[in-house]
Amino acid sequence: MDESWVNSAERIGADLHLELSGPRVGRAALIRALRDAVRSGRLAPGTRLPPYRSLAADLGVARNTVADAYAELVAEGWLAARQGSGTRVAMGVPPTPLRQWGSSEAPRHAGRVPRTGPPRARGPRHDLRQGTPDASAFPRSAWLTSYRRALQQAPNEVFGPGDPAGRVELREALTEYLARARGVHTEPCRIVVCSGFAHALRLLFGGGVLRGPLAVEAYGLGFHRELLRAAGVRTVPLPLDEHGACVDRLGRERAVLLTPAHQFPTGGPLAAGRRSAVVDWARARGAVVLEDDYDGEFRYDRKPVGAVQGLDPERVIFMGSVSKSLSPAVRLGWMVLPERYVDDVLAAKGEREAWASVLDQLSLADFLSSGSYDRHVRRMRQRYRGRRNRLVAALATHAPHVEVSGVAAGLHAVLRLPPGTERSTVKAAAWQGVALDGLAEFRHPETDMPAGEGLVVGYATPPEHAYGAALDALCGVLPPQVTACAPQPRSPE
Amino acid sequence: MDESWVNSAERIGADLHLELSGPRVGRAALIRALRDAVRSGRLAPGTRLPPYRSLAADLGVARNTVADAYAELVAEGWLAARQGSGTRVAMGVPPTPLRQWGSSEAPRHAGRVPRTGPPRARGPRHDLRQGTPDASAFPRSAWLTSYRRALQQAPNEVFGPGDPAGRVELREALTEYLARARGVHTEPCRIVVCSGFAHALRLLFGGGVLRGPLAVEAYGLGFHRELLRAAGVRTVPLPLDEHGACVDRLGRERAVLLTPAHQFPTGGPLAAGRRSAVVDWARARGAVVLEDDYDGEFRYDRKPVGAVQGLDPERVIFMGSVSKSLSPAVRLGWMVLPERYVDDVLAAKGEREAWASVLDQLSLADFLSSGSYDRHVRRMRQRYRGRRNRLVAALATHAPHVEVSGVAAGLHAVLRLPPGTERSTVKAAAWQGVALDGLAEFRHPETDMPAGEGLVVGYATPPEHAYGAALDALCGVLPPQVTACAPQPRSPE
To answer: Is the pLDDT of residue B88 over 90?
Structure first.
């Protein structure tokens, strides 16, 4: 390979530019193009990548897009970065020649060359990203028992066209479970099974059941906001304070999306007075409260607060899934709906569209009613409580100036950072193979509330044996105690 | 119960009117309301329902909406109809008292009363609706073997956040299988797994990857047209002749949706000259061909024609699913994409959104690569071929004037009927507990091609043991040979 080619930043930019033709050159496309270039050998191991600024200019994208793409690929192990010496292609990534399919003259019967993503075990060394449970703890054998029983006992009609509401066995089991565990008052005919929370949002807003403007918490998942924006829904940020979302700021919105049990990501519960206030607002305005109960089962210091839905089942849409409690791989979630929305949600879902795997639905029904779900949640609650305690203890020892905010709950914690240190800390973490997000990632772009800085640490994500090392690595990248006028870590460009 | 109340058509209309408040009183809502009224006892067994016309006027809906709702509920066993004596609530439907949840004063801890749909085994007596394979033939034990193996061998990362493209194991298995069985030329990185054909359409058009106008075949699934309409896509009908869709009528559309292997529902394959013509059109116009390969594995008289996709993988999006070959309950489908669409489809799918159950994906990958899929398809091909032959033989004996059109393929056949008999035959079938659709159901409302009349008979749907009785019942409702000026069966009003 021509060394001058490999080392020329302009050639790399030009090459990526060709790859990235199209109107949507974003972070994801750039990451894919870079991965491909490494995998195909066009970027050889050890090659130094252009600085953010020049590649950004070559591609006509924001500098942060390039910075984020590099950081992600460092975390995934494709690239390596050392402060001062720039970013290089990691050594030892085996290049996989990719058949070129660009024209219809491509050989018809050329051999199959799978592009299989990064080699196994090439994720970040320490994965502290929020959002997923410990993947090594999936209850394989109990789940298989439920799946086998469900498959063997299923009447034949299970394999025919499905009820778009989802299997009644699952809706019955959820009715019982949600009443007991979350104080949800409903009946099976008010439940619609879907493939997760994002699917629920799409059905409600993309399907024309609800319309905006929708009030949301000033901090939340960007991809939910993006999904809503794509559906033409304007979101209006509600500031957060120590009692949770400031629901007294609600005005003429038609709906509000809240995480009352454990604000995501900042970590506080919605105060009792605000729980009733938001329901009163919805009643007075003919509006609706969307309750995202994403980790409601995981509270460590007390019994979880029940769902707001219990206050008025006709004014609250309660949404949950197994993505935190079992695994996002199962792709099962549910909406508990006021009666008046059921038909419209089913119409939005589409005739004959079950969406979620019917066999998994039956398996989950069995898993719930046999007590396996309770046992699994109990076990994970214990595990995650232990991890949170270890995190708090490690910080007390190694970084006593870094505060863990929020209640003892859920699968993640927010570490408050001194002003001006968040962005550099996230990058420093990536260089050390620690993947996590800064609070800024979750901030609504239009909120006027003061920005706090911090790290969102998903302590549930690593497998049990790797958690200690992840904690050590995390403590190693936290900024030192800031004293007046202390120099800030320099950005790597 | 007050008998005068029960028997008063006006009261029934008024009662349903209350139930049906809201902007979308359609067939589905009316069916639900009527079911609820029967289930709750508000409509007692034996109660005579108002004539279509008067209920339609009461509710402000089309007469056909009421007629269709009655027919559906007759087919489901909730209502009973006899020509001349109107439609009545069926005897012996056990009323289930429904807890009233209309206000927030409803008792919080009232006992759970599941609304579980009609009692089991209360579908139509003879289900000849198209669209589903024989639900009794799902290969439970082979599937469980694959699922167990997949679950046991899965690396832990399977239970973490998924690749929105779907599991690579499945995309690899599909690449191999589709090349072998359908002549599809692709590689795993061009495949995106989804939850079925409707999901694929939503991703392409709802997600902004493709835009209309979209040419479609003049006969096709109404719910696909409806889904496209909801996504703001104008569909332009292409007439069909004995060579399939008239692709020479394609003009400035940006895409065309075809069922080349076996036109749905009319049953002919797309002629060879038209296969290449449509690809040429797409090349010349910068357009794209959507190939809906819904039942491509099921051809009985010869080896199936390969996919049009093989002619030019850069101009054709090939879509398939297991809904016909295994079961719609599995909710797995795939798109084979030209390279230029992959990123946009993944963006439309959403970050971290696998949609389809990851465990089922792994299970299907094993099912494909272990040969279980081939064995199952072979077995079902034999079974459906036998059923089609029995259908043809039964017609030859009992209704020699009724022609079966289309090639020997797929899971359904079209029975051509004499003019003016389709609608009444579908209704007569419903009265006899035979559920099937007329061709009119599938006709694009804007096509100018002459309407043929016929029945779409899903011969795959009944379980094996019930097929003979279903055939007998079908033959019993076919219109007699029409001679000049023969009286048409009267509509039941």
So the answer is: no
Helix (H, G, I), strand (E, B) or coil at B285: helix
Is the pLDDT at A96 greater than 60? The verdict is no
A116-174 confidence digits (pLDDT tens): 444 434 568 999 999 889 999 999 999 999 999 999 999 998 998 888 899 999 999 99
**Min CA distance, B476 vs chain A (Å)?**
25
Tell me whether residues B151 and A143 touch, CB distance under 8 A: yes
Which residue from B156, B172, B199 is facing A136, i.e. has the nearest CB?
Answer: B156
Topology of domain A375-477 in CATH is Aspartate Aminotransferase, domain 1 (3.90.1150)
Q: Say whether domain B3-89 belongs to CATH 1.10.10.10.
A: yes
Q: What share of chain B is helix, strand, coil (3-state, %, to 5)?
A: 45, 15, 45
Residue ranges matching CATH 1.10.10.10 in chain B:
3-89
**Start-end ranges of CATH 3.90.1150.10 in chain A?**
375-477
- All residues of chain A having their beta carbon less than 8 Å from the beta carbon of residue B283 are 104
What confidence tier does B45 reach under pLDDT thresholds 50, 70, 90?
confident
For domain B140-371, give the fold.
Aspartate Aminotransferase; domain 2 (3.40.640)
Are B157 and A123 a contacting pair at CB < 8 A?
A: yes
CATH 3.40.640.10 domain extents, chain B: 140-371
Please tell me the pTM assigned to this model.
0.77
The partner residue sitting opposite B115, judged by closest CB among A29, A161, A189, is A189
Q: How far apart are CA B56 and CA B65, in angstroms?
A: 8
Cα B58 to Cα B10: distance, rounded to the nearest angstrom: 8
A163, closest residue in chain B (CA to CA): B117
Given this model, what pLDDT does residue B288 score? 98
Residue in B129, B331, B344 to test binding to A, most A beta-carbons within 10 Å: B331
Across the interface, do B117 and A351 touch by the CB < 8 Å criterion? no
Both structure tokens of B322: 């297991």
Is A266 exposed, middle or buried, given 0-12, 13-18 or 19+ CB atoms closer than 10 A?
A: buried
